[in-house]
Amino acid sequence: MTSADAVVALDVGGTGMKCALVDPDGTVLHTERHPTGAERGPAAVVDTVLEVAEGLAGKARADGRTPVAVGIAVPGVVDEARGVAVWSANVGFRDVPLRELAQARLGLPAALGHDVRAGGLAEARIGAGRGAGHVLFVAIGTGIAAAHVVDGAAAVGAHGAAGEIGHILVRPGGPRCGCGRPGCLEAVASASAVGRRYAELAGEPATAAEVAARAAAGEALAGQVWRETVEALADGLASGQALFDVATIVLGGGLAQAGAQLLDPLRAALHERMTFHREPRLVAAALGDEAGCLGAALLALDDLEKR
Amino acid sequence: MTSADAVVALDVGGTGMKCALVDPDGTVLHTERHPTGAERGPAAVVDTVLEVAEGLAGKARADGRTPVAVGIAVPGVVDEARGVAVWSANVGFRDVPLRELAQARLGLPAALGHDVRAGGLAEARIGAGRGAGHVLFVAIGTGIAAAHVVDGAAAVGAHGAAGEIGHILVRPGGPRCGCGRPGCLEAVASASAVGRRYAELAGEPATAAEVAARAAAGEALAGQVWRETVEALADGLASGQALFDVATIVLGGGLAQAGAQLLDPLRAALHERMTFHREPRLVAAALGDEAGCLGAALLALDDLEKR
């Protein structure tokens, strides 16, 4: 690759797509955002994805760059080896051969990845987990998901479904999760769960950010909800550490934007739970909501190298 | 290697050592068992390990075989990259450079591994998980530990402590675990936990095997303990599957000797917990208590290939 090359990268979410042109050295050259329009159905979303990717390749050429590969990250169950978006609740994909479709449309080698695993890959290689070797990236937003990254590669699993830390059991008999089971980590500690729990106790709705702000301002109920959340997250991370034994846990997603208000008590609660375990560093994500897009670019570059 | 080669393999446990000469094709040529004698202190245990290994190498030569490598598996925290037994509660090891010691004493290349990870490696490659690609081996005995094996390699972790599924939280506020925390899987579903729980309810002691037999014979209390155990194990395995997404879960250790009495209800309870997950096959281990020793031989052979 020459310095005039560029990778086309897209991170397709339930509501929006984060898109970029990325230099092979990891530098972001250009970013774009587009609505996903998931309500139009999966076929229309695929059309939009391909159109936006084509547009980005054109933009690269117009800027004097040669587009060399396409990386696409999508949520849900993703078969990265076959390049198929197997299943996604919020985008509606069912067995969409997105890699092949992108290759055919753009005439460029393409790679398909899972959004959180791609984000974890980027955080582990060029973000907050840089140099750690063994990293667990945990994204806490509407849901909770993770990527276990060892030596720069994210574990995919036998069926493309690895890393679902949101669905480990932490509160048996607890609130029912979106997945149908009671007491999943996601059902008690996601940003949505924080809002729900506050509404339940206070009788009025609030976002997780509002609960955080009220807790910081000394409101007792908000403080209680925040503490419960931290305890549940610490239980989940401690179970993850028992299984993975990572050097660094990187927290991303909306809830992690609470910064020290989340990280400080969570670090203390995690420390309390470490017995035989080797304690991991717990740090905030460094790449913000562009992590998935950057990770898609890294996947595309990895794939190019293997060819 | 020629067909006249042999690998010296030892699996050092808290009470006994399982030892073997193994053909490079995986065939066991000869087995020996020796007491570990952990009460004599770690230095004496190291002496015994080296002496037994030397004896096995001599036995190989006497049988017309050439000993080509030594593989040793030990419990606790094991740094496989450096070949150091970092920490082991039941054998007393603290930072013992066992690989180097074995190499110096026997004049052969040596590999050091973790007992459960070695057992998992063997089950995944030549045992019940053969051909599955992604395998979780779970050993349920006095304690509970696991090995996550992908494409024939067991995950070691950043500090040699990966796979501690016995210490994921399944019963918050539950019985205190040996590790000091309440509600660990090991504290409610290991063979020892089954015995303890029965004693608590029935007022008389019983081993897990006795509880299993009484449950099978229709004793109500034993049946209740068995059901509780199955539920807790299913919770633990479901959390493991959410994170690892394996194709096959292999159950080993003493409790798995209950066979269908454990596997059938556990399979049903696990099935109930699978929502978005891809359901893994749940099977009994195939290599019995020689899995760790066979795995040690495989590690030694892997290491030979890399040299």
TrEMBL record, chains A, B:
Transmembrane segments: none annotated. The keyword Oxidoreductase does not apply. InterPro entries: ATPase_NBD, ROK. It comes from the Bacteria. Keywords: Kinase, Transferase. GO terms for molecular function: kinase activity. Belongs to the ROK (NagC/XylR) family. This is Glucokinase. It comes from Micromonospora echinaurantiaca.
